[in-house]
Design goal:
Length: about 775
């Protein structure tokens, strides 16, 4: 009846270790509790080989505790000494010399004071660490075994053998969290799951990091739209973060790692030696960002982990009506990303609601500001050391402002990047395969992000959410009303018909989706060109251009995207029922499909590969009218038949959704009249942004002499306008820069994806 316990063969290295070390016999007089963790681990491994389960438990549990105790002692001692070293000597010294010493004599005294402090600190450390502390320092290999949580692998077998199931399950689960690819442990866990007497609550992670647990809880409440609970846990996560950060940094102050130097040949002089060690410690402290953001068992740390707390929090506070806190968190986030457009808009919105007099005094959080300042100073020193001594520093943060990096280093890095670019171009074909894999991976993670991000502000006045995902019975869906007035809708409908008769290549073709409807369409750029030629009213073409940008910004904000959304394709389309072809009509106006994958409804799968437009991330349709029969838009399940929600078109209404398999959709037959809508597809991948849009931007800039192509939000204070003006300059530069990138990327894109040729435009139209 016993489950097959498939323990991985005990590690050979550990057995060797056990043989080398003095292994006390169980029951001997030796005081086990004072032994270092590596000896206890070795003793536990040896007991495992003998099948002495209670000894395995005794030694392994003690090994875990011994390592933890050593860690705690080190941390406590270093923190205590750090706190002690700031007071005392220098102040007393200065009291004895009330008159400031001359410049010439200040130098040697400063040096002495500096080293005096170091001496005191070292003396403090020597006092507070136990004798022979180095005996407790674990070797690299043993430390790795602990990090892989190997002791829990032994423990789960031992506990199972002595029939302590709850402990066995906890140990198994704890091990598995850090080793998610461990097939044997997965099978063990499956067995445990089926066993009588095992409760769900037994599956605990005994080594869970509190800050990560709270963060995860906070985010999951956030996702469930429970802002109060999200706030509670995210604030707790931050508290735990500071503790973990302090501890992590204290642990960095260890011995110098010669890193491949032969220490016998190491002959650095005083300051060089100090700096070698100091930069190593400082680098390690900077590395705590990554250490704290890493999730057990996952290779990639969470990006921008600390700032992201404030991104979640600002919105959770906003959702629970606490504007002051929302402002505080938004300002805190902006410390790290001062140019974040969405956050700036949020802040402007919260400020407008709360009122300037209340909003202005709200500061970013003190502790974070301090952290940010310190981190910048550390980076400055590390970059200096990189520049001057060539001690490499890999910055773990994405938010570091460029000014922190010395000019010379920036140039050197630029040259290095260019060289790297040349090399990678040469092996480009090989890289592309890898790139595709990576792209899929990041797509997966953005898919994950999408779940969390919904419900951002609508940016413009006069817009309202008519239905959210919940009301639309799905995810990543929204219906927003108020984009256009009746007059504007009519102008755009006239524009399409005028464009069609002016002959822009569509000329009232039969719909590619049904023989019972005709189909006219015009792109933004075409409309502007026709306006320029006087074939359609210029104002209508401009309106068309403006309103598509408005939809783009709203989508970006509402779905809380942290990278810009680019136009991938936009098309104003009118479909007209052909009167004598409506009898017995059974086909839809547009069959059910998914925008970025090929839907196989029978197999219930959606294949995300070309010829599907796999790079499309979000879609929106803006309706111009509702005075026709049929033509409702609907979402379905993956089977393409079970309708989950229906949306009735009307002037100024937009339906927006993510373009993936979560949102199959179609359009019912238009049986009478004309149905007009602007279909918009967006991508997060700048490489796939629409070339025609860039041309349209240029044309608008030329025709209307606008500095900026973005529509500023309608609400803005005087102070904000000044900021906007400043931004415009930046924005322009960015556009130029982006174009260059696009141009470069297009070469790549053209060879890998079918270029959308003019004649196939109809096929691209899916709504
Ligand atoms: C810290 O300083 C205080 C007095 O300033 C002293 O009593 C204490 O022993 C010091 N702590 C350590 C660990 O040296
Ligand atoms: C389009 O937007 C620009 C910039 O906000 C504005 O000046 C212009 O009047 C708008 N034009 C139309 C036709 O909506
Ligand atoms: C969502 O589903 C409910 C129940 O099936 C239905 O009554 C409702 O109309 C659906 N929502 C939409 C927008 O179609």
């Amino acid at each position: 009846m016993a489950p097959r316990v498939l323990l991985a063969r005990p590690l050979f290295g550990l057995l060797v270790l056990a043989a080398q070390l003095f292994v006390p016999a169980v029951g001997a007089e030796t005081d086990l509790s004072s032994l270092p963790a590596d000896m206890l681990l070795a003793a536990g491994t040896e007991a495992y080989a003998r099948g002495d389960w209670s000894a395995v438990i005794l030694h392994m549990e003690r090994a875990l505790r011994a390592r933890e105790a050593h860690r705690a002692r080190l941390i406590q001692c270093r923190l205590r000494c750090a706190a002690n070293s700031t007071d005392g000597l220098p102040a007393k010294d200065e009291q004895q010399h009330p008159a400031p010493p001359a410049v010439g004599e200040r130098r040697p005294l400063d040096d002495l004071r500096f080293f005096g402090q170091l001496l005191r600190r070292a003396g403090c450390l020597r006092k507070c660490l136990p004798d022979g502390a180095s005996r407790y320092q674990l070797g690299e290999e043993t430390e790795l075994e602990f990090r892989k949580r190997s002791p829990y692998n032994y423990l789960q077998v031992a506990y199972f053998k002595i029939n302590k199931l709850d402990k066995a399950v906890a140990a198994a689960h704890t091990f598995f969290v850090a080793n998610p690819g461990h097939m044997e442990m997965r099978q063990n866990l499956d067995y445990y799951q089926m066993m009588a007497g095992v409760k769900d609550s037994d599956f605990v992670d005994l080594e869970a990091k509190p800050h990560m647990e709270e963060f995860r809880l906070g985010v999951s409440y956030y996702t469930e739209e429970k802002p109060q609970a999200a706030i509670l846990h995210l604030e707790k996560a931050l508290e735990a973060y500071w503790v973990a950060d302090t501890e992590c940094r204290a642990l960095c102050e260890g011995p110098y790692d010669y890193e491949g130097y032969n220490y016998l040949e190491y002959n650095a002089d005083l300051f060089q030696a100090i700096i070698d060690h100091y930069t190593q410690v400082l680098s390690c402290k900077q590395g705590c960002v990554t250490e704290l953001a890493s999730q057990t068992g996952s290779e990639k740390p969470i990006e921008d982990f600390l700032p992201s707390h404030f991104n979640y929090l600002q919105f959770a506070y906003y959702n629970s009506g606490d504007y002051e806190k929302a402002i505080e968190c938004a300002k805190t986030y902006l410390l790290f990303f001062p140019n974040d457009e969405v956050m700036k808009q949020n802040l402007a919105y919260y400020t407008a609601v709360l009122g300037d007099n209340l909003a202005t005094p709200v500061r970013p959080r003190k502790d974070v500001e301090l952290y940010w300042r310190r981190s910048l100073l550390e980076k400055e020193q590390l970059f200096f050391a990189y520049d001057v001594f060539g001690i490499p520093f890999v910055d773990p943060d994405t938010w570091t402002p460029e000014e922190v990096i010395p000019k010379r280093l920036q140039e050197k890095q630029k040259v290095e990047r260019e060289t790297a670019a040349r090399i990678s171009e040469e092996i480009g074909n090989l890289m592309k395969e890898i790139e595709n894999l990576v792209e899929e991976k990041t797509k997966e993670s953005t898919d994950m992000n999408k779940l969390v991000r919904e419900g951002g502000p609508l940016v413009y006045d006069g817009l309202g959410i008519t239905m959210n995902s919940k009301l639309l019975n799905g995810s990543q869906r929204v219906v927003v009303d108020g984009f256009l007035s009746d007059e504007e809708c009519r102008a755009l409908q006239r524009l399409t018909n005028a464009a069609a008769s002016a002959g822009d290549g569509y000329r009232g073709k039969t719909s590619p989706h049904t023989p019972s409807e005709t189909f006219y369409g015009v792109t933004v750029y075409k409309a502007l060109k026709l306006g320029q030629e006087g074939k359609v009213p210029m104002q209508s073409a401009y309106l068309y251009y403006n309103v598509t940008e408005k939809v783009r910004l709203v989508m970006e904000s509402y779905f809380r995207l942290d990278t810009p959304l680019h136009f991938s394709y936009s098309h104003l389309v009118c479909r007209t029922a052909i009167e004598d072809k409506q009898e017995d009509r059974a086909d839809p106006s547009h069959p059910v499909h998914v925008d970025n994958c090929i839907l196989n409804a029978e197999a219930l799968v959606c294949v995300k590969e070309p010829p599907a437009y796999t790079f499309r991330d979000y879609s929106a349709i803006l309706y111009l009218n509702g005075d026709f029969e049929g033509g409702a838009f609907y979402f379905t399940e993956l089977d393409a038949t079970t309708v989950t929600a229906e949306v009735q078109p009307q002037c100024g209404r937009a339906v927006g959704f993510s373009s993936g398999s979560e949102n199959p959709h179609g359009v019912k037959a238009v049986t009478k009249g004309q149905r007009c809508a602007i279909a918009l597809w967006f991508t997060l991948d700048p490489r796939h942004s629409e070339r025609e849009r860039v041309q349209a931007d240029d044309l608008v800039r030329m025709l209307f002499n606008t500095e900026e192509t973005e529509l500023p939000p309608e609400k803005e204070t005087v102070a904000e306008k000044e900021i906007v003006a400043e931004k415009e300059i930046v924005a322009e530069k960015e556009i130029v820069a982006e174009k260059e990138i696009v141009a470069e990327k297009e070469i790549v894109a053209e060879s890998s994806t079918p270029a959308p040729a003019e004649d196939t435009t109809l096929g691209k139209d899916e709504l």
